Amino acid sequence: MMASSPDDSLRPRVGLIYDERMCRHTTPDGEAHPECPERIRAIWKKLESEGIPRRCVVLNAKKVEDKYLASVHTQNYIKLIKNISSKEFDSRRQRIASKFNSIYLNVGSSEAAYLAAGSVIEASEKVAKGDLNSVIAIVRPPGHHAESNEAMGFCLFNNVAVAVNYLLNEKPELGIKKILIVDWDVHHGNGTQKMFYKDPRVLFFSVHRFDFGCFYPSGDDGAYCMIGEGPGAGYNINIPWEHGQCSDADYIAVWDHVLIPIAKEYNPDIILVSAGFDAAIDDPLGGCCVTPHGYSLLLQKLMQFAQGKIVMVLEGGYNLKSIANSVLACAKVLLQEESVGSIQTATFKSTWRVIEAVRHELKGYWPVLDVELPQNLLITNSRPCPAEVTYSSSESDVENDEGTARTINFSDFVEDDVLLPLSKLKIDEGNHGKVIASDQVQEEESLSASEASHDAELVTSNEIVDGYITWRSLLSKVEVWYASFGSNMWMPRFLCYIEGGKVEGMSAPCCGSLDKSSPKDVIWKIVPHRLLFGRSHTRTWGAGGVAFLDPERSTSDKAYLCMYRITLEQFNDVLLQENSLHQENGIIKQMASPLLDLHILEYVAKNKSLPLEALKDGWYSTVLYLGKEDDLPILTMTCSASDVERFKSGELPASVPAKDYMNTLVNGLVEGKQLTREEAVAYVNGAATWKL
Ligand code: Q9C
Ligand code: ZN
Fold first, then answer.
1. Does residue 273 come out as left (phi exceeding 0), alpha (psi in the -120 to 50 range) or beta?
2. Which residues are placed with Cβ below 5 angstroms of ligand 2, an ion?
3. How far apart are CA 94 and CA 167, in angstroms?
4. pLDDT digit string (tens) for 34-49?
């Protein structure tokens, strides 16, 4: 199925495989299990909702033939999985499953396992031949824990290993002689490692939580000293995290300082990614926090090899939203559609320790690793391990399962708020104090110590903690116009978002911004956008509609804007409060990273409007760029264009503002000397009753 828009020929050919029959592998008793059918359904639905399948080639899933399984699994084991779903096994199935570690089996398991392995073969062959540039195989059950004679860790057949053997042994004519397997599932790919431990034709790279042998599948197999054997020595690479909480920065550091240099040297003919998404943020099993953008960067960095021949194969990943968003981000990268955002976390100290240990272990096999890492990289880029972090004893502290996360009061914002390494900053003093953050993660060469300290001179010393600068101190140096068109047009109301507190008619006080300094300037402006009043109830004002600006320009409309000159740091606090995302269970949360950083600002300025994924459940999730004033960007926030469609269709109710809300709007327009009281009432009522 090919879409047929005019730019099809320019687009990379990306395949997708998904088959509903793989959803029939379920727990026999209907018991909840993280490895559930909804996983692949959620991914597929997400891709469909974004129109991805239309822009891809959708392939049919195929069952693997037994002879291809035989390169990886024993005859007895193949026979067992083949027959396990048949009637004659009904009485023994559960007992057999219980003999394996973390395995369930039902009447749908055989077919799903055969389809998963067969689909990865199909995908790999199409990419190896060059029919497609890359494929995403959305398969289950997963595969990387499965060994030759053993199901384990939710895996039945080792899908990736079967496909790799197929390419190497069954299809020599395709010319695939060297295969790189990148296993970024949060668990060690023990099955795959074993399969190719002595085989130099397969470079197996796995990054996983290890916790010194205590993380699943526990033992020493995932240690960094497991480097391969015989002719395969040097072709097995493990990156064992010492703890949870690893984030984009840790993965990128490993890519830049281990995987990428080795991949350049190895020069693979094709790459298979054992793409589990259980290191994703909010995964219930992984305890790490890789973002969709992080995954997309990891994938993008692999696309420079093997002429972009990449087969991405789903392994684990148990938070439905996280895996759907992560696969979507990866699909967009393979399609070479835009991806914006920057890495906002710092690398753990322990990550540099692991990287150095791995490089030392492997430098005899990969000379490119036989150079010291730049010393200032190790000094400036480090964040204490979770276990080393000390907590304040405030009663609002909440520990998560990992015993490391916490929630603090806004007023408690502390210096160890999320930190940016200095080496990622470029501060241009000559340019009106504008600050530019660079997400170009440097490869082997980093800033020299003197360059780094030169940059450091431009920020004051209390903004630097152990060589880091907080995102807050960075964004506090950037000014923007926040353009308000609703209740925030009235200055006392807006000041609640800065100073905290409430004004008449508001049901709950605001927590305010961390930086409580007043706007540097206030000016009014009229813009060609439709103002409308939608929805029927708000937490702050009770019954009645709230103001939205149609993100689309239309010259026949005009909306009054009251613009406040504030910092980008304050704008982030306003964004958060305006979308009611600052509270959970009545506890005020800190913002780990900015919703709108400098890169996103640059993107918004270019594209005029941007829906922020992190705000998608809020009412004002779209940031609009309305031009410039005094050379500073004018930003506002409103609903998405699709919400405007929903207002037009009546799916979302349009509604006049509540009395207190109306008063606030009118006060703003009157005190701002824009309209008389009567004119202001007429303006708001006109907008509220406008036929959408
Ligand atoms: N205490 C994959 O992600 N956990 N498999 C068992 C026992 C098993 C994960 C915990 C995790 C298996 C493909
Ligand atoms: Zn996993």
1. beta
2. 185, 187, 276, 278, 316
3. 35
4. 999 999 999 999 999 9
Distance between terminal CA atoms of the chain?
38
How is residue 164 written in tokens?
């790799």
HEC readout, 540-565: CCEECCEEEEEEEECCCCCEEEEEEE
Q: How far apart are CA 15 and CA 135, in angstroms?
A: 4
In tens, the pLDDT along 514-538 reads 899 999 999 999 999 999 999 888 8
Token couple for 29:
């008793």
Q: Given 73, 144, 145, 208, which residue is catalytic?
A: 145
Ligand 1 atom 1, closest CA: 216
What is the rounded CA–CA span in Å between residue 306 and residue 271? Answer: 7
Strands (E), 257-355: 270-275, 310-314
Residue 440, pLDDT > 80, answer no
What's residue 218's pLDDT? 87
Percentage of residues in the chain having pLDDT higher than 90: 68
From the CA of 141, which ligand is nearest? 1
Q: Are strands 14-17 and 57-59 parallel, antiparallel or unpaired?
A: parallel
pTM of the complete model: 0.60
Residue with tokens 């979308």: 579
Mutational test site, ligand 1, from 39, 285, 318, max ligand atoms within 8 Å of CB? 285
Can you tell me the distance from the alpha carbon of 59 to that of 61, in angstroms, rounded to the nearest whole number? 6
Q: Which of the ligands is closest to the CA of residue 102?
A: 1
